[in-house]
Here is the input.
Amino acid sequence: MTDLSRPILPGALPDKRQVAASFSRAAATYDSVAALQRAVGEGLLALLPAGLAPSRWLDLGSGTGHFSRALAARFDTATGVAVDIAEGMLNHAREQGGAHYHVAGDAERLPLGDGCVDLVFSSLAVQWCDQFAAVLDEARRVLRPGGVLAFSSLCVGTLEELRASWQAVDGQVHVNRFRRFDDYQRLCGASGLQVLGLTCQPHVLHYPDVRSLTHELKALGAHNLNPGRPSGLTGRARMQGLLQAYEQFRQSEGLPATYQVVYGVLRKEG
Here is the structure.
């Protein structure tokens, strides 16, 4: 397949090795705790333009391949390519089927040829990319004229309850940072792609206790990966302080965890 022709050079992903390693370790547990990911991905599928019939699609940040399989079922005559930065996720996805090709690669520097796909589908992956403008540039490059980029991501306000609770305890960085929604608006507007839709919608999950939430984040591989995060184990006193601070947010359904989800659908004109 000559379109998969640009290799990833050694050392090209120095800032993302930790992200890749974390998600690789989570491959076996990810699907068991991925309720948010499923709901958001299904929402993104529902936003695809009517009549879209790609001959080749790309699942970018494909993870365990859940939505590769959904895309394969929906576009059953198309060729599917799954790209992920985490080898552990790709190995898991290969065993499940879905995409025809599973390729290790970085969304900011795709190992694909120009104009080789009709759809780039990326659900809850690009929030881990430092340069979203580069993601948009790469999507525009690999899309054929008339092709569609559909993505979901997270923005500021995500896990705000957890962030505020930790802030009350020690003020250190315990929760992943995300870009602002107006940054998504600005970058999509300057991408050279036609913006068909760009929205931010809150998605709230509830947990019986804080440990259930933090266990799920670890099982997803989405626990704290920020520079400046505390090293070593969290002491008993600090953890007790976190539990007490989070209780102020408790609702009848349990402790809320709010995710601010960005949905974007863009088209390459031509």
Q: What stands out?
A: Residues 124 and 153 are 5 Å apart (CA to CA). The mean pLDDT is 84.
